[in-house]
C-alpha cells in the first residue's frame, strides 16, 4: 500500500448523514454523537443532513458530497437494517469505486461482543468514491459509538500506523 506521505497532524472534513423517516435535528442522537466525536478529534464538520430513507434521495445527497473536493469523509447513520424502507446499502454501494469489505466484517465482529447475534442484522458497509471515504453505520447511537471508537477514529487519524485512510483521501 503506497500513497503520498501526509502530515501526521492532518485533519479531515467530514459530512454526517442521518437516514431516517422520523429523526429531526432535535432527536437525532446518533448524528449528534458523530458530530461531537469528530469535532472532539479535531476534524471539521463539513456538512450535516437528515434525509428520509429513499434510495434516490440518499444517492443524490451522497453523490453531491462525493463530488465536493472539500469533503474527505461521509458517515451515514441509519437505514442499514432489513425493515421495508431500509435502503442505505442499496443506495450507496453503486456509488463506490472500491468497497472496503473488511469494514462491515469488522463492525459486525466487534458489535457481536456488545449485542450478540443481533449484529447479523447490520448491513454496515464502507468504500471509497472519488477519494472520499463513505462509511454507513446502523442508526442506533450505540452502533455509531462502536463504529467511531473502534474503527473510524483510528483510520481517520493520520498518525495511526501501520496504515490509515488519510493518504487516500487528501490530495
UniProtKB/TrEMBL annotation:
Keywords from the named record: Molybdenum cofactor biosynthesis
The keyword Plastid is assigned to this record: no
UniProt pathway annotation: Cofactor biosynthesis; molybdopterin biosynthesis
Organism domain of life: Bacteria
GO CC terms in record: cytosol
Keyword Cell inner membrane in record: no
One Pfam family it belongs to: MoCF_biosynth
Occurrences of domain MoaB/Mog (ranges): 15-159
UniProt-listed InterPro entries: MoaB, MoaB/Mog-like_dom_sf, MoaB/Mog_dom, MoaB_proteobac
SUPFAM superfamilies: Molybdenum cofactor biosynthesis proteins
Coiled-coil portions: none
GO biological process terms, semicolon-separated: Mo-molybdopterin cofactor biosynthetic process
Family recorded in the similarity comment: Belongs to the MoaB/Mog family.
PANTHER family assigned: MOLYBDENUM COFACTOR BIOSYNTHESIS PROTEIN B (PTHR43232:SF2)
Functional summary from the UniProt entry: May be involved in the biosynthesis of molybdopterin.
UniProt protein name: Molybdenum cofactor biosynthesis protein B
Organism: Microbulbifer pacificus
Amino acid at each position: 500500500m503506497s500513497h503520498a506521505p501526509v502530515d501526521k497532524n492532518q485533519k479531515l472534513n467530514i459530512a454526517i448523514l442521518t437516514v431516517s423517516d422520523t429523526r429531526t435535528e432535535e432527536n437525532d442522537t446518533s448524528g449528534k454523537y458523530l458530530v461531537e466525536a469528530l469535532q472532539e478529534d479535531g476534524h471539521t464538520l463539513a456538512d450535516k443532513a437528515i434525509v428520509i430513507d429513499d434510495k434516490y434521495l440518499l444517492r443524490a445527497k451522497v453523490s453531491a458530497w462525493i463530488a465536493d473536493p472539500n469533503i474527505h469523509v461521509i458517515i451515514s447513520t441509519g437505514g442499514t437494517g432489513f425493515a421495508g424502507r431500509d435502503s442505505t446499502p442499496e443506495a450507496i454501494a453503486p456509488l463506490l469505486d472500491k468497497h472496503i469489505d473488511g469494514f462491515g466484517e469488522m463492525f459486525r465482529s466487534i458489535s457481536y461482543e456488545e449485542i450478540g447475534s443481533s449484529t447479523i442484522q447490520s448491513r454496515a458497509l464502507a468504500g471509497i468514491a472519488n477519494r472520499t471515504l463513505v462509511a454507513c453505520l446502523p442508526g442506533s447511537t450505540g452502533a455509531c459509538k462502536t463504529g467511531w471508537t473502534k474503527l473510524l477514529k483510528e483510520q481517520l487519524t493520520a498518525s495511526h500506523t501501520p496504515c490509515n485512510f488519510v493518504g487516500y483521501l487528501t490530495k
